[in-house]
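Suppose a colleague, Dr. K., hands you the sequence of a protein chain of 471 amino acids and asks what its three-dimensional shape might be. Before reaching for any lab equipment, you can write down a predicted structure in token form. Begin with the sequence itself:
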Amino acid sequence: MFESVTPESVGIPSQAIERFFKEIETRKMPMHSFMMLRHGNIVTQGWWAPHHSFEQHIIYSVSKSFTSIAVGFCLEEGLFKLTDKLVDLFREKIDFMVDAYTKELTVEHLLTMRSGHPHATDRTGTDWVKAFLQTPPPYRPGTLFGYDSTATHTLCALIQKVTGMTMMDYLKPRLFDKLGIEGIYCQQDPMGIDAGSRGIHCKTQDMAKFGQLMLQNGVWNGEQVVPAHWVKTATQKHVDTSAKGTKCDGNRGYGYQFWRFRDDAFGGIGSGGQLIVIIPHLDMVWVSTGNLLEDEGDYDLIVRLFHATVTPFVGDTPLPENPKAHGALTARTEALFMLMPDGVTDCALVDQINGKTYAFKKNSAGISRIGFDKTSTGFDIRIRIGEADWVINAGRNDWMPQHVSVTDDDGWARYVFVDEQTMVCHVHLSLKLGTYKLVMHFMDDALTIKLRPTGWTDFRRFNLLATGTAL
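The predicted structure, expressed as tokens, is then:
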């Protein structure tokens, strides 16, 4: 594992890094973790409570970069070629008239996001690969960039077909075991194929290890784990992305499931703030997780803040040690926590709503009643949906861990009173990138509630804006 060093010892002032964390706090950005390496050592790291260092966090489309490495291993072992046509590789699925553009599709087209599809094809059925092959590309493969996650998933299916094992099982002895990565896993499609376009869960440290491996041209502990030529080929620009409109650090191009960044950097991007950024000329890697889909600007805001606060101050030689500045940085990173809106946890409203239940007219969310019970740690908010109760254990002064039954996930919840009549509760999911936000205004015998989900779309989402009356 990496060793921790002071920022000054690797040419970075602690004040610059602390400024980065302070900007995140000031903007109340829902970050989950951050780690930065320089010269192969940890310069800074932190987890925003209730997130923690041993959490297997979903990394969404950063998964694609791991898929690229699996493809590289398959090519090295001669299991298929970049020029192989998909219609030849998946003959068993072809029982339909194949479109002329589909006939042209190659492995390399999928790697470079030039499948001819501007976005993912249908994934509502059982066989995502067959649906992909049955969907005629609107433009010619091999021409323009189009962010097609089903193209990546088709690569995962190909890996499973030619190796006889899932992509993650295939990578275990070749990559994960070599890097000491344990507990990493991937969600699967209905046919048991790893969803390597978006479904990998791993620790922040694992993301940093992967980034450092790529920075070292595939070498780990003196062993060439990933072929150097594949690292170079996969991370170089193969296709222009300038017309995409993506927020990818200036649209610097796309490789084989790797993004290009400014200053000849590269890495992986996952929706909401999942990032691996590899900066060769600075001998630096930094990674992050978060849920910046909460109207905060997504991953591009993290990148812009880092370049504004840290990058300009990175030097080539060590700086004099600064115990005071480093101490302030350490104190800040050790006290990181997910922020709630400004408010209080105790007011007259606590006793006024304790034990009350409010009834709602028929609505699209299926919510009929909401009740409140004060507990020793905060409030239980009981939401009746159909015939079941979703009980939110909202913490008074801390995030309360719990199973979120409504979406079959684990998570945490907390509340504050933002004024004498309004309670705000956030329910933060741990396995998926999602947060339920409840804003509840109490007036006389009425409760007006706004319940909305924020984050990625792969969790059960309830929306409600309604007024109920006390029973």
